[in-house]
Design a protein that fits this description.
The complex is a heterotrimer of chains A (162), B (289) and C (762). Helix content of chain A is 32%, strand content 15%. Chain A is an alpha+beta fold. Chain A has a 5-stranded mixed beta sheet with strand order 2-1-5-3-4, sandwiched between helices. The mean pLDDT of chain C is 94. The chains are: A alpha+beta (162), B alpha+beta (289), C alpha+beta (762). Chains in contact: A-B, A-C, B-C. Chains A and C meet through α2, α3, α4 and α5 of A and α1 and α15 of C.
Chain lengths: 162, 289, 762
C-alpha cells in the first residue's frame, strides 16, 4: 500500500491505496465521490472522465498513485448546491441527459474543452465528444447544450487551471 | 476488470528506470498507460512491476531544427496537436497524429508508449516507418539508434530489449514544398484504422515525382512501406494512369492482409488500393504555390 | 385564486436533472452497506459441455476470500428462473438455472460465485478456480434439423417452441395471385448495451428475516416475486429497492442468475454482498436480442395491392428462455403486417436454442426485425411490379376508417390486440414533405463525387401500454404537499417528471408541491414497472384515478373543517371552498389522507409514424453516410415534448447502431469475438448528427382517459428496413439488394463487388 496525496475539488485528500487501484475507483470508493461513473474499465466510454491538472483524462486509465501531487476535478467540483452552472443549465434546457449515467463524463469533458477552446465550433465539439458514449440521447441534444454553453466561457478572466 | 497485482515504481531518472527493468524480468514501462492499462484490465498481461516514467524529466521536448523534428518519448498527442510551429515544420506529423483516439486519451498517450506497444494500426508507427525515422533508445548497455524499418518485428512486438526505454524519435528534415497526404479508414471516429495510407513525394519543375514514400498501417502485422507503389511514382508525372497503377500495386502489395471481424483480407487489400488512390489524388492538391 | 396552468403538454425541464447533473445520482454501485463484501462471477469459457467438476480450494485459500459458491451449495435442485411473460408449460425445460450444475450451454454462463473483501480480490480468486468441462460441439448458427449435440435432452432438434400466427387463408391466395416473391432475410444479433452495467447489492436481516436488494429496475415487483419463490421466502419479506438506473432499453431489470446468487450469498454469509458487472461480462451475459431468419413470401395483385404474406421465422434465442424471451418471437410473427392491410397472413415462428447468450426483449423487440423483413419485401415487390415505392405503400396503408383493426391471431397463449387509431397516410405525407422527397428523387441511384445517393421511406407502428395494471398511491402530507408513489420504474426516460406533470394537473398544484417516488416494492402494494413503453400510460392513468379519489377525500375532510356537507365543497388549485364562502388550504387539513389506485388495462396503444432517409454509399469503402434522417411519430397526446423528442432521437440512433455498427459475432465454437467496446461498436457523437424528428398528437388513443400512447421504442423500429431500402435505391444500377443486416462497410463492399462480377462493367 502507498499513500497518495492530491487535491480533489479544491480540498487536500490522502488515501492508502494498492498500486493497482485506478484513479476512478479511488475517487469513487476510497474517497466516496460517486459522481464519476465507471462504464467500461478499458478506456473507451468516457463515463469516468475527470480533469487532472487542467486536462480531461479517463480515470480508469490512470492509477491512483499517479495522481500524487496533482489537482483533480470531478463533476462534484464543477457543481454547487445553490444553483446550476451555465453548462448544467444548458444540459437541462436541451434535455442532454436521460438516464444520467454518462452525464458526469460529458460535463467534465465539455467543461475542459470549453475552458481550452471557448469558441469551439459545432464540428469540433462533436469531434471531442466522440470520446464519450451515450446510449440514451443520440448525442444531438448534448452537442447543442455544449454549443449553448459557449458564451459563458468566452471573455472569461483567466482562471486557475481547472 | 480490475487490474492484476503489480509492484509500482516511479524513478526520478532514466538510469534508475533502466536499472529497475534490468533487475526485474516481469517489469514493464508505464508511460501514458492508454494502451497498457486496458490490456491489463482484460488480464491479457501480468507485469510484475510497472516502472512509471512520469517523474523523469527531459523526455517531453519537441525540438525543431535544420536537422529535422525530434519528438521526446513522453511527448503527448495533445502536445503535438497544439504546436503550430511543428505543424508548419512537418505537417504530416500533425495530420497523422490528429487521427489518434480521442480527447481524453490524447492528454495522456505518448509517442514512446505507442511505438513500444507496436499496434499494427497505430498512426505513430506508420509515421515513423514512412518517414524513415530513427528511434533512439537507452538501456543498461547504453544508447543506440534503431531505424524505424528495423524497429517493428510483429504485432505488439519490437526490437527493444527488455531493459531498453525509448528516449526520442528523430525525423529526417522535411522539405517545405513536399506534396503529402494521409487517409485512414476506420469504422468510427478515433477507432483503430482498418487501413491507412500516408504518402509524400517531391515534384520537379516538370511535374515528375521523386523520393516517393508510401506507407500503410492496419493491413499487416507491422506498418509497411510500399516499394512497389513507390516504383509506380518515382520518375513519373501524376497522371490518371500512374494513380491507377499505384492503386493496383497497393492492392496486391500485402501477401496476406490482416483479417478480423471488421475486415476480411480481400476487403483490406481493396481498401489499401482505394486509399492509395485517394491519397495520391489528394496529395496533388497540397502545397499549391 | 390562481388558476392552474397545465404542465401536461409543456416542455417542462426534468426534475431528475437537478441531482444527476451534480453527480448526485444514486446508482447501484453508489450503494454502500456496512460490512459489505464483493462478489465476482466465474463464467464458462466453453460454449457447450458437460460440467464434470469445480476445484476451488486454491481460490478459497486466497486471503480476503470468504466463499466460493457453486451448485453444490444450492441443494439438490438448482433453482431455475421462470418465464415472466406469456409462460407456457412446454417452456420449462429451457428455463435458465441460476448456476450451472451438470452442463454449460453458453460462454458466459455462471459456474461459481466468489465473495471477497474487494472486487479485485474476488477477480483474482476467479483465476484460481479450475473447472473440468468435457466439451460438446457448439451450435452457433441456427439449424432447423436434428443435430449432433442438442442443448437439452427434452429437445433433440433445438427447436424449443413454436408460435403460429394466422389471419385468413394465405396458402389459398398464393396459389392464385398475379405476383408472388419469396426471399430469405436475416437480422443479426445485437442488443441494448446500457451505459451502466448491471449490479445487485443484497442484505439479509436475520432478525426480521427480510431480504433487501438494491439495483432493481424495470420490473422490481415481478423480480420480488421470483426471488421470493426461488428462495422460499414470503413475498412480503423481500424488498427490491430502485434507485437511479443507467438505462434499460428492455435488457436491464429482468431477473438474471445474479439476482438470485447475490441474495443467496448475503443470506449464507450473513453480510451484505455487492456485485457489479464489468463491461466484458455485460457484453457476454446481458440479455441479447434480434438474431432472426425469415423466409418471407408476398403475394400481390398486378396493381400492387398486397393480398397475402407468409413467413417462416427462426428466432435464435440462445441457450435458455429468459423471463422476456417470448416477446420477440411473438411480436415478429404478429407485426410483419404493421400498419398495412394484409388480408391473409400466416407466420410460423420457430424458437431455436443455441450455444449463445440467452436473448430477450430489446427496444422494439421483434418489431425492428419484422419491419426490416416487410419494408424490404415491399420495395422488392414494388420494383418488380413497376410501381413507385411510396405509391405501393399508399395503396396498402390502413385508412383511418379501417381502425381499430385487429392484429392477426397468435397461438398458443393468444392476446387479442388491435391497432387503435391513426391517420397513417397523412403522417407519411408530412414526412415525405419534410425530407423534400419529390425534389430529391432526381438523386436516386446517382453517383456524385464518388458516392451513390439513395432515399427511402417507411411506415411503422409501435405497441405500448401493456397491462394488466399499475398502481399509484397519493398521500396528502400535513404541510399541504403531496407524496406520490408509483409502481412505474425509472430507467432514464424521465418518468418522474412526466408523472409529476400529470399529477400536478390532476391535483391542480404546482410541481414543487409534489414529490414522486418510483419503482421500489416498498412504495405500493403491487406494481408492474416499465416495459412495452407503458409507464406514461399505465402510471399516468393510475395517478389520474388516485388524484380523483384523493380530491374526493380532501373535500370530505374540508367539509369537516368548513362545517358543511361534502357535496357543498369545491376544490381548485390547492384550495377547498364551501358554498357558504369559507375556504381551507391543503395544509389546513392535518394530512393523513391517502389513496392507492389501480389502473387496469388490456388494450395496447399503437403509436405510429413514418421515417425517411437520404444516404450515400461509398463504393470504394462500403461506408454508408446518413445525410438526412427525418422521423414523424404520432404519440396521441404529448405529455412532455422535450422528453418525447429525446426518446425519438435516442431510439433512432440505437436503430442506426443496430443497422450499421453493432454486432455480436460468434465463432464456430461459440466464442464471442466482439466482447469489448473496441469491437462491439455503438454509435458515437460523430456518427449520426443529421436526424430531425417531430412528435405529433393527431389521434389520441381511445383506449384510456389519458389519450397518450406509449412512445419510447418507435424510433428504433423502422430503421433497419428503411436504411436497407435506401441502400438498395442508391445501388440500383448494380442491382444490389441487401437482405441481411448489419450493413457494415465490409459487407456492403462485398455486395457491390459481387454485383459487379455478375455484370459486365463498362
Amino acid at each position: 500500500m502507498t499513500q497518495v496525496c492530491f487535491e480533489l475539488n479544491g480540498e487536500s485528500v490522502s488515501a492508502d491505496v494498492e498500486s493497482r487501484l485506478t484513479l476512478g475507483d479511488c475517487i469513487r470508493h476510497t474517497l466516496r465521490k460517486t459522481g464519476t461513473h465507471i462504464g467500461c474499465e478499458h478506456g473507451v466510454c468516457g463515463a469516468c472522465t475527470v480533469i487532472v491538472d487542467g486536462d480531461a483524462v479517463r480515470s480508469c486509465l490512470m492509477l491512483a498513485v499517479q495522481a500524487d501531487g496533482r489537482k483533480v476535478t470531478t463533476v462534484e467540483g464543477l457543481s454547487n448546491d445553490e444553483e446550476l452552472t451555465p453548462l448544467q443549465l444548458a444540459f437541462r434546457e436541451h434535455h442532454a441527459l436521460q438516464c444520467g449515467f454518462c452525464t458526469p463524463g460529458f460535463l467534465t469533458t465539455a467543461h475542459n474543452l470549453l475552458m481550452k477552446e471557448p469558441y469551439a465550433r459545432e464540428e469540433r465539439i462533436r469531434e471531442v465528444l466522440s470520446g464519450n458514449i451515450c446510449r440514451c440521447t443520440g448525442y444531438i441534444s448534448i452537442v447543442h447544450a455544449v454549443m449553448a454553453a459557449r458564451p459563458a466561457y468566452q471573455n472569461r478572466p483567466q482562471e486557475a487551471k481547472q | 476488470m480490475k487490474l492484476p497485482q503489480f509492484e509500482y515504481a516511479s524513478p526520478r531518472s532514466l538510469d534508475e528506470a533502466i536499472a529497475l527493468l534490468a533487475a526485474n524480468d516481469g517489469a514493464k514501462v508505464l508511460s501514458g498507460g492508454q494502451s497498457l492499462l486496458p490490456v491489463m484490465a482484460f488480464r491479457l498481461s501480468y507485469p510484475s512491476m510497472l516502472v512509471d516514467l512520469r517523474q523523469i524529466e527531459g523526455l517531453d521536448r519537441i525540438t525543431l531544427s535544420d536537422e529535422g523534428v525530434r519528438l521526446g518519448a513522453r511527448v503527448r498527442w495533445y502536445d503535438i496537436e497544439i504546436n503550430r510551429d511543428l505543424q508548419n515544420a512537418h505537417p504530416l506529423i500533425t495530420e497523422m497524429i490528429s487521427h489518434v483516439a480521442h480527447f481524453q486519451v490524447r492528454h495522456r498517450g505518448t509517442v514512446g508508449g505507442s511505438l513500444a506497444h507496436a499496434d499494427p494500426s497505430a498512426e505513430m508507427s506508420g509515421l515513423a516507418v514512412v518517414c524513415d525515422c530513427d528511434i533512439v533508445v537507452r538501456g543498461s548497455a547504453g544508447e543506440r539508434i534503431i531505424a524505424a524499418a528495423d524497429f517493428f518485428k510483429g504485432s505488439l512486438e519490437t526490437a527493444l530489449r527488455h531493459d531498453e526505454i525509448i528516449v526520442e524519435v528523430r525525423f529526417p528534415p522535411w522539405k517545405p514544398q513536399r506534396r503529402w497526404s494521409f487517409q485512414e479508414f476506420a469504422r468510427r471516429r478515433g477507432d483503430f484504422a482498418i487501413a491507412g495510407v500516408a504518402a509524400y513525394f517531391d515534384l520537379d519543375p516538370n511535374g515528375r515525382m521523386s523520393d516517393a514514400h508510401v506507407g500503410a498501417i492496419g493491413v499487416a502485422d507491422t506498418p509497411q512501406r510500399l516499394p512497389t507503389v513507390e516504383a509506380c511514382l518515382n520518375g513519373q508525372r501524376m497522371t490518371g494512369e500512374a494513380i491507377t497503377q499505384a492503386r493496383n500495386a497497393a492492392r496486391s502489395a500485402i501477401a496476406e492482409p490482416l483479417q478480423d471481424i471488421h475486415a476480411q483480407a480481400d476487403y483490406r487489400a481493396a481498401l489499401l488500393g482505394t486509399l492509395t488512390e485517394r491519397v495520391l489524388q489528394n496529395a496533388m492538391g497540397v502545397n499549391q504555390s | 385564486m390562481n388558476e392552474h396552468v397545465p404542465f401536461v403538454g409543456r416542455p417542462i425541464q426534468r426534475v431528475e436533472d437537478l441531482r444527476l447533473l451534480r453527480g448526485k445520482g444514486r446508482y447501484v454501485d453508489d450503494v454502500e452497506r456496512p460490512g459489505q463484501l464483493h462478489a465476482a462471477v466465474l463464467r464458462s469459457s466453453v460454449a457447450h459441455g458437460i460440467l464434470r467438476g469445480i476445484e476451488a480450494s486454491a481460490a478459497r485459500a486466497l486471503p480476503g476470500v470468504h466463499a466460493v459458491i457453486t451448485a453444490a451449495d444450492l441443494g439438490n435442485i438448482v433453482p431455475r428462473i421462470p418465464v415472466r411473460l406469456f409462460p407456457n408449460e412446454a417452456m420449462k425445460p429451457f428455463h435458465q438455472p441460476v448456476i450451472a450444475s451438470d452442463k454449460v450451454r453458453f460462454v458466459g454462463e455462471p459456474i461459481a460465485l466468489v465473495v471477497a473483501d474487494t472486487p479485485a480480490v474476488a477477480e483474482d480468486a476467479l483465476e484460481l478456480i479450475a473447472v473440468d468441462i468435457d466439451p460438446l460441439s457448439a451450435i452457433s448458427k441456427m439449424t432447423a434439423s436434428k443435430c449432433l449435440a442438442p442443448l437439452f435432452d427434452a429437445c433433440e432438434t433445438n427447436r424449443a417452441f413454436d408460435y403460429r400466427v394466422r389471419r385468413g387463408d394465405a396458402a389459398a391466395v398464393f396459389a392464385t395471385a398475379d405476383y408472388t416473391r419469396r426471399e430469405r432475410l436475416y437480422v443479426h444479433r445485437h442488443t441494448g448495451v446500457t451505459m451502466e452495467t448491471r449490479g445487485v447489492v443484497s442484505e439479509w436481516d436475520p432478525v426480521a428475516k427480510r431480504m433487501t436488494s438494491w439495483g432493481a429496475a424495470k420490473v422490481p415487483f415481478a423480480n420480488r416475486k421470483i426471488l421470493a419463490t426461488l428462495m422460499g421466502l414470503p413475498e412480503e419479506a423481500v424488498d427490491m429497492i430502485e434507485g437511479d438506473a443507467g438505462g434499460s432499453f428492455g435488457v436491464r431489470g429482468e431477473f438474471f442468475p445474479e439476482d438470485f446468487l447475490v441474495p443467496f450469498a448475503a443470506k449464507m454469509l450473513g453480510r451484505p454482498v455487492k456485485w457489479i458487472e464489468d463491461r466484458r461480462e455485460h457484453l457476454l451475459a446481458v440479455t441479447h436480442a434480434r438474431d432472426i431468419t425469415c423466409d418471407l413470401a408476398i403475394a400481390c395483385s398486378k396493381d400492387g395491392h398486397v393480398l397475402a404474406m407468409q413467413a417462416e421465422l427462426y428466432v435464435d434465442v440462445g441457450a435458455y428462455f429468459r423471463t422476456s424471451t417470448t416477446i420477440t418471437p411473438r411480436n415478429v410473427g404478429q407485426f410483419i403486417p404493421g400498419p398495412y392491410r394484409v388480408p391473409h397472413y400466416s407466420a410460423d415462428v420457430a424458437v431455436m436454442v443455441s450455444n449463445k447468450s440467452p436473448s430477450g426483449t430489446y427496444r422494439g423487440p421483434g418489431r425492428f426485425e419484422a419491419d426490416f423483413f416487410r419494408e424490404r419485401m415491399f420495395d422488392l415487390a414494388a420494383k418488380d411490379l413497376g410501381i413507385d415505392r411510396v405509391e405501393f405503400r399508399r395503396r396498402n396503408l390502413l385508412s383511418e376508417g379501417e381502425l381499430p383493426s385487429a392484429m392477426p391471431a397468435i397461438e398458443p397463449d393468444p392476446i387479442v390486440t388491435e391497432l387503435d387509431s391513426g391517420i397513417y397516410e397523412h403522417v407519411l405525407d408530412l414526412c415525405l414533405d419534410k425530407i423534400g422527397w419529390q425534389e430529391k428523387q432526381v438523386l436516386q441511384g446517382k453517383l456524385i463525387d464518388g458516392r451513390y445517393h439513395g432515399l427511402a421511406a417507411a411506415c411503422f407502428v409501435e405497441g405500448g401500454a401493456a397491462g394488466p395494471r399499475e398502481n399509484a398511491k397519493m398521500v396528502l402530507e400535513d404541510d399541504g404537499t403531496v407524496s406520490i408513489y408509483v409502481g412505474s420504474s425509472a430507467v432514464g426516460q424521465g418518468v418522474q417528471t412526466i408523472l409529476m406533470q400529470i399529477a400536478a394537473d390532476a391535483l391542480e398544484l404546482p410541481m414543487e408541491r409534489l414529490r414522486l417516488f418510483h419503482g421500489s416494492t416498498t412504495y405500493v402494494k403491487e406494481g408492474w414497472g416499465s416495459y412495452h413503453s407503458r409507464s406514461t400510460v399505465m402510471g399516468g392513468n393510475a395517478i389520474l384515478i388516485a388524484a380523483k379519489e384523493l380530491i374526493g377525500q380532501i373535500k370530505t375532510a374540508a367539509a369537516g373543517v368548513l362545517q358543511c356537507a361534502p357535496d357543498q365543497v369545491t376544490y381548485a388549485s390547492g384550495v377547498a371552498t364551501s358554498a357558504q364562502g369559507g375556504s381551507v388550504e391543503l395544509s389546513g387539513l392535518g394530512g393523513g389522507i391517502s389513496y392507492e389506485a389501480t389502473f387496469s388495462n388490456n388494450k395496447h396503444t399503437y403509436t405510429y409514424g413514418s421515417h425517411a432517409v437520404h444516404l450515400t454509399v461509398d463504393p470504394g469503402t462500403g461506408r454508408i453516410d446518413i445525410l438526412d434522417y427525418v422521423g414523424f411519430e404520432d404519440a396521441g397526446r404529448i405529455i412532455n415534448p422535450l422528453t418525447l423528442h429525446g426518446q425519438s432521437i435516442g431510439a433512432i440512433v440505437q436503430g442506426l447502431g443496430g443497422t450499421l455498427l453493432e454486432q455480436f459475432v460468434y465463432d464456430s465454437e461459440g466464442q464471442l469475438l466482439s466482447g469489448s467496446f473496441a469491437d462491439y461498436l455503438v454509435p458515437l457523437a460523430t456518427d449520426f448528427p443529421n436526424i430531425r424528428t417531430e412528435p405529433l398528437e393527431l389521434r389520441p388513443s381511445p383506449n384510456h382517459p389519458l389519450g397518450a400512447k406509449g412512445a419510447g421504442e418507435g424510433g428504433t423500429i423502422p430503421v433497419g428496413g428503411l436504411v436497407s431500402n435506401a441502400v438498395a435505391a442508391a445501388l440500383q444500377e448494380l442491382d444490389v439488394q441487401p437482405l441481411s443486416l448489419p450493413l457494415s462497410p465490409n459487407r456492403v463492399w462485398r455486395m457491390i463487388e459481387d454485383a459487379r462480377m455478375k455484370k459486365p462493367y463498362s
